[in-house]
Amino acid sequence: MPDDARESTPEVRPTEASDRIEFIAEKKGGISLRVLGLLIGLLIVVDVLAILILPPMDTAHPEADCAYPACFVEGTLHFPRPHEVWVAGGAEPAHGLMTFQVSFTDALVTMIGITILVLIVTILATRGRAPVPGLVQNFTEWAYESMSNWSIGMGGARAARYIPIFAAFFILILAFNWSGLIPGIGFLPATRAPTSDLNITIGLALFAFGYFQVQGFRRLGVGGYLSKFFPFYEFRNGIGAGLIALFVGLVELILEFVKPITLSMRLFGNIFGGEVALAVVMGLTVALVPVALYGLEIILTFVQALIFSTLTLMFILAAIESHHHEEGHAAEEAVDVLKEAAPATA
Length: 346
Known about the structure:
The protein is mainly α. The chain is built from ten helices and two strands. The chain folds into two domains: 19-54; 70-345, no CATH class. The chain has helices at 3-8, 17-53, 70-74, 106-126, 135-155, 163-179, 198-226, 239-284, 288-319, 329-345; strands spanning 84-87, 103-105.
């Protein structure tokens, strides 16, 4: 065959393995860009149609014109005060951020519905385990193994018996968090992301607080558990060591009651703050920016569920840890500190 004929049909097929990888990556990148462009165009069209069909309105005065940008933002905000669906005795609903009346709020109704849904899905996903697992069984086993490995990796072998409570907190709070990202939740009647209500997060934190206190008393006994906060045994090593140990124990006791506050405030602040950010961006920009923020919120809400459940697990392990093997150590450490400080002040 002539040389010019061979040169007219050059081959572009990659030869080396690295060349093939780069070739495939470039090909996939081109397809992804086209799909991304189509999605951006579709989102903009949907955004324009939404403004035309369901224009923003002033919820306080629906008949008035909605001015940009204040009305656009306020029309999408769900303020932190819960909205009562039902109040016992027909009483006037409370107007504070926290409520102390017998009532059903929109967040509580949504929480009950999501909890029932999660229970049904969990029961259906874990029943009838087949020798050859299918897609659902594979995912369920992978999810539980991942949570088990995380729990044991964080707390060691002692955490194995508390994996169910860790998994329950994580799955429920993740479902509560992600419910706020579903279109319509928060605007439809009697719907709201449960963890964007301070009353719900305080309830979850108080339940966790009560659980690890019960586990502490159950594992160490009343005297053993209280000795962590009132270490009178340190007075055997001297009055000074005893007073220092007692002071440290009282600080730990105060911090023990701070735990439910930090658990509840962290979860509420992040979830409600994310909703406010989404509402502001949705009211001021086209659909492309809120969708990007949605992706970030999915990750952040996942992390918040993981933080709450992990901290609960760590607090449980801290509650069941005995300090009896450390008797005398606080006094020795205090004496060492004073000896080190003495030459410096001399």
